[in-house]
Amino acid sequence: MGEELKVSGKHVKLRIVLFILALAAAVAAFTLGITSIGKKEPGYYEITGEAHDDAPLYQSDFSFTYKFEGTSAEIREETNQIKSVYEAAMLRAYKLTDPKTEYDGFVNLATLNHHPNESFPVSEEFFAVLQTAMALSGDGYSLYAGPYDAEWNNILYISNSKDFDPLANADEAERLSRLLALADPSSGEVELVLGDGAEKTAMLKTSASYLEAIADLELTDAPILDLSVFRDAVRADIVRKALEEAGYHNGYLSTASGLSVNLSGHSGAYMFYTRNAAGIVQAASVPAAPGSSSVTVRTFEIMKNETGYYEIEKDGVTYRRHPFLLADEEAFGDCLSLMAVTEGDSLTELYQTVFQMMRTQTVPTDTTDVVSVLYSLAGDAETEKVYVHDVLTGGDILVLDRFERVDVP
């Protein structure tokens, strides 16, 4: 068998004097801060919600920026109003899509995971999330691949990832193969059953043999149902809808996972990054029309010491490992990074389109809402180019073939 994968009493008077001086300075600084905070000028402000002990990470990796107009008093009032809407939507979206933790007053993914073969009444909003997740299954993604994703994450985020990569470790390859088979809904071993009657219901149906197999693989703590890389897209769609319905349109959302959302009253630009011999480069930008969204998927780290990315070679082929692998251990061909921009209203659907394009290296013909696609290809570092695909003409247009280096932290 192979190696297992683990995831003083001196100077009292002087110190008192220094403390009093420091306290006085702090009070002065605090007073100055309050004065400056109280004065609001028109412009962009980042909006954050209050901390919640039961979900401390509910807004991590998300950023919301809004452009305010009006007097200082009007800006303060609107800030409080929009903060309330944003916080409530972010908290609700996080809890509904959490595959591991249950919350009072919520039936969520964790509820279904922790109570297999039990039916639960669910909200209209959560029911729609589950329908979307089921529709996404295919093209390398499965709603039931939580244990598989947990295993891959164990590999991606350890210091000796290459030792456990399935290309180098036969035992790990066998484990992943078993987990991939278990994630196949056509196997009849696992199924999400939705009841679309007067009362919406949901049940995670699992066989005894499925639960025994997960136990044998020592992954009973891993959730079965998991939105995986689609979770941020689902959350962003929920938050955008809440903000728009509340009348807030002049801002934008972004996530660390590569999603950007322009509300219906805001415009700007989407930046596209790739990698060449010089390092990380900003290759191009695309106009961000009001109401548009973008998704960027990359197969390389963009920040120094960023974890979750590595490369491994076999038989002369370089495989890039990254958090966007989904239920597919193969690399995304020669595609280094890809960004798609849509004027549609679903980030989740756009995310699915992007993964299809990463795998097939082509743009699906039915993506009528996608207005542009940028992608960079691995190859000779001196000749790598970035292309934009025009879905209206079906043509590839060279955007840029020389890049300026971008310094990252």
List the helices and strands and how they pair.
Elements lengths: L11 H27 L4 E5 L14 E7 L3 H25 L12 H6 L4 E3 L2 H13 L9 H11 L4 H4 L5 H13 L7 E7 L3 E7 L1 H9 L14 H15 L5 E5 L3 E4 L5 E9 L2 E10 L4 E6 L11 E5 L2 E5 L13 E8 L4 H14 L9 E8 L8 E5 L4 E6 L3 E2 L4
Antiparallel strand pairs: 1-2, 2-6, 3-5, 4-5, 6-7, 7-10, 8-9, 9-17, 10-13, 11-12, 13-14, 14-15, 15-16
Residue windows where pLDDT falls under 50 for at least 5 positions? 6-36, 397-409
Average of per-residue pLDDT values: 81
Classify the beta-strand content into a percent band.
15-25%
Widest β-sheet, arrangement of strands: 1-2-6-7-10-13-14-15-16
Q: What integer value in Å does the Rg equal?
A: 24 Å
Secondary structure tally: strands: 17
Indicate the overall shape.
Answer: globular
Helix-strand makeup class: alpha+beta
- The ordered H/E elements are HEEHHEHHHHEEHHEEEEEEEEHEEEE
Note the gap between the termini.
Answer: 41 Å
How would you describe the overall organization of this protein?
With 409 residues, this protein is α+β, with helices and mostly antiparallel strands. It has a domain at 257-405. Helices cover 33% and strands 25% of the residues. It is built from 10 helices and 17 strands. The chain has a 9-stranded antiparallel beta sheet, with helices on one face. It has a 3-stranded antiparallel beta sheet with strand order 3-5-4. Strands 8-9-17 form a 3-stranded antiparallel beta sheet, with no helix packed on it. α2 packs antiparallel against α9. The longest helix has 27 residues, at 12-38. The chain is globular. The two termini are 41 Å apart. 36% of the residues are buried. The model is unreliable at 6-36 and 397-409 (pLDDT under 50).
